[in-house]
Design brief:
The longest helix has 26 residues, at about 40-65. By secondary structure, the chain is mostly helical. The chain contains 26 helices and eight strands.
Length: about 675
């Protein structure tokens, strides 16, 4: 048989000609000239090229090979491990040899042992005590713990199910076998082995014991779920097998998948369905907290009582709690212990009802997504698991508001600081200087935006240069979603709801202080946002590098807390009954309170502040900007603004020119003399 050398002769020269035979790579033949007419030299070069070619083909296969398992593959591996181990766990019943029987606690020990070794890699030389502690609870006796440690040292070791076993199982399924999938497959095989022993402990329980073959009955998820339900009932309430339902009482089908195992899938579905922008892991954290506080049950084991228990436990977790990550770090690295949180924490350490409601709202959306999968109702309609009823009504008490406004005296004190009157340079803006200078940046302008336009911190920090219209009859600023505030780099963001898209008239005080000249200076620098120092900095090569914590968060960290702390030292800030001081958002309260006179309509206020309109008429028919033109509507609001909102900056001097610090030094104001807001804020 002729040997394939992949050599082709074209004229006097030899060429190496071969194809990549992968489905995901172009299969056209590739020809490489060997630049030789000597057949012996051509064969030598062809052999070397053939070896390199095979290496490239293998690498291409590994790069394009899937590194995760599908849900069906995960379930198949779990079943494979469970069925294999179940045969061993029940062999003393199906084919007894001798009178000896396994001790009653063996299944408990073995299930825990397989769960423990799933926490460590197959190559581990030892099993840490933290892995064992994570699998046992207060029901374990010292004798059982000692037996578990012996089993882990002599019988069930990390190499009991190794990477080779995992790869063989993957190949038998036709799944990709690589380092990533092998580790995942090993975990599912071990999870199946642990479940086998948990099921073997149910052999004497109804309805498994009444099945035609009790051992085969352990493979029936519905029967196992019923057996566990019977086992957990008091003896007086135990049902006869004839009265046990033949299917799941709440959901269309039972599932062994735990809540934590589908969190990422659920999280991605929620964001895709709702079109949400990334939130820095807040929603993922809420889902992990729910799994931790409820014991991370199998999806079909959840009942309304677990939602009630979750709400009760969440209220008992104090503020500043080290949550960590589920199963990885912090308090959530180990199972939740309800005995640690029997009582409500002191009032000062409790979470506000609004915070709790935010958890319930997110989880209600999660429950609606799960209605299409694991929590599909048995009858095909209704919702078995809901969080709506856990939400608390927040009462409004005018005598005891949740947030107090900044008063005129506080604002005049604030704008009397050297930051607006003239101070030092970067890091010394709140200290007197031999040559006082007024520098303009976010530290200078964002508080003024809050005072004279009533916008929120994030809205003021994320405005772009194209959002200003200075040449209009009524100068205006637009508040809208933009790429500066985008969280994914692809979708404009930065508004809480559609009603926050609005145009605001610019107060003449802002023009007097040089807002137009400042924006023009930023345009000359070539930045799209008017406060570039809040979103990035220049590296050593002079390139603009974006921050991770940016916008309003950065403004608060480097400017606002130092300025308001200095003002508080001179005139104490107002405070609520529970000790919350007035903050930046209190300017929005000040602005609204000033404009909300008796002759100003609620519809005008809603448009100005970006609130949702109430009533059918306001929502559907009140369109003054479209009816009379945006210019007239802005002029009307400017007249109200000038009439109702007091001027608190009459003593702030008009800067002779726009002065900008180097970009990396802007808005860094530092503490006032005798203060250290970084360590003792508002103290």
């Amino acid at each position: 048989m002729r040997q394939q050398s992949y050599l082709v002769r074209k004229g006097a020269r030899y060429h190496f000609r071969r194809r990549l035979t992968c489905d995901y790579v172009c299969s056209h033949a590739i020809s490489v000239s060997l630049n030789t007419a000597d057949p012996a030299e051509a064969r030598r070069l062809a052999r070397r090229l053939a070896v390199k070619w095979d290496e490239i083909a293998m690498y291409a296969g590994q790069v394009h090979e899937r590194g995760t398992l599908t849900l069906k593959e995960q379930e198949a591996l779990f079943r494979s491990g469970m069925e294999e181990e179940l045969a061993h766990a029940t062999r003393h019943l199906t084919a007894p040899i001798g009178p000896e029987e396994a001790p009653a606690a063996l299944h408990k020990i073995m299930a825990a042992a397989y769960s423990v070794i799933s926490r460590v890699p197959a190559s581990a030389d030892r099993i840490g005590s933290e892995c064992i502690d994570a699998e046992v609870d207060g029901d374990w006796t010292p004798g059982e713990l000692d037996l578990l440690r012996k089993v882990l040292s002599l019988w069930v070791t990390p190499r009991t199910v190794g990477d080779h076993d995992a790869r063989q199982a993957l190949l038998s399924l036709g799944a990709p076998a690589n380092a990533a999938t092998a580790g995942e497959a090993r975990a599912h095989l071990l999870r199946g082995r642990a479940e086998a022993h948990r099921r073997a402990a149910l052999l004497e329980e109804q309805p498994v014991a009444f099945s035609a073959s009790s051992v085969l009955g352990l493979l029936d998820d519905a029967r196992v779920a019923q057996a566990r339900g019977v086992l957990n009932r008091p003896a007086a309430e135990a049902l006869d097998f004839a009265s046990v339902p033949s299917s799941h009482p709440f959901f269309a089908e039972a599932s062994n998948i735990r809540f934590s195992e589908q969190i990422q899938e659920l999280h991605d579905a929620m964001f895709e369905d709702k079109g949400w922008q990334p939130d820095g892991g807040k929603t993922l954290h809420m889902l992990q907290v729910f799994a931790w506080l409820t014991g991370d049950l199998a999806m079909s084991d959840y009942r309304p009582k677990h939602i009630k228990a979750y709400a009760k436990r969440l209220a008992r977790i104090p503020l500043h709690f080290n949550w960590g990550k589920l199963g990885q770090s912090g308090e959530m690295a180990v199972p939740f212990d309800p005995q640690r949180f029997k009582e409500l924490p002191p009032k000062a350490q409790r979470r506000q009802d609004r915070t709790l409601n935010s958890h319930f709202s997110k989880l209600e959306i999660a429950a609606q997504v799960l209605m299409e999968t694991y929590w599909l109702p048995k009858q095909g309609f209704g919702q078995a698991i809901t969080f709506r009823s856990r939400r608390k009504t927040i009462p409004t008490d005018d005598a005891n508001p949740r947030r107090v406004p900044l008063m005129e005296e506080n604002l005049k004190t604030l704008y009397g600081l050297s930051l607006w009157q003239g101070g030092g340079g970067a890091g010394r803006r709140l200290k007197p200087s031999a040559s006082p200078t007024i520098w303009q940046d976010a530290a200078y302008w964002v508080p003024l935006f809050g005072t004279y336009m009533g916008i929120s911190r994030e809205e003021g920090c994320g405005v772009e240069v194209i959002d200003f219209g200075f040449d209009a009859t009524t100068p205006y600023m637009l508040i809208r979603a933009n790429m500066t505030k985008s969280k994914d780099g692809e979708t404009p963001a930065g508004i809480k709801r559609l009603s926050r898209n609005r145009a605001l008239p610019i107060h003449p005080e802002l023009l007097r202080l040089g807002l137009r000249e400042y924006v023009e200076a930023i345009v000359a620098e070539g930045h799209p946002m008017i406060f570039p120092e809040l979103y990035g900095e220049l590296n050593r090569d002079g390139e603009y590098q974006p921050f991770t914590n940016r916008g309003g968060k950065r403004f608060y960290a480097i400017a606002w807390r130092f300025a308001i702390d200095a003002a508080h030292a001179m005139v104490p800030l107002p405070m609520t009954s529970d000790g919350k001081r007035a903050d930046f958002h209190s300017q929005r309260t000040f602005h609204y309170s000033a404009m909300a006179s008796e002759d100003v309509s609620a519809a005008l206020l809603a448009r100005h502040f970006g609130h949702a309109q109430t009533g059918v008429g306001n929502r559907n028919y009140n369109r003054p900007a479209l009816t009379f033109g945006q210019e007239r509507e802005l002029a009307d609001r400017l007249r109200v603004l000038l009439r109702e909102v007091p001027v608190v900056t009459e003593n702030v001097p008009t800067p002779p020119c726009t002065r900008l610090l180097p970009l990396n030094n802007r808005s860094r104001v530092g503490s006032a003399t005798g203060r250290n807001a970084a360590l003792r804020f508002l103290a």
